[in-house]
Amino acid sequence: MAKVDLETILADVKATMVAHFNAKLTALNTEKNDGITLLPLDGDAYFLQQLNGKLANWNPICVYGCDNIETISRGPFAGSKFTLSVMIVERE
Question: Which domain covers residue 18, as residue numbers?
Answer without folding.
Answer: 6-89
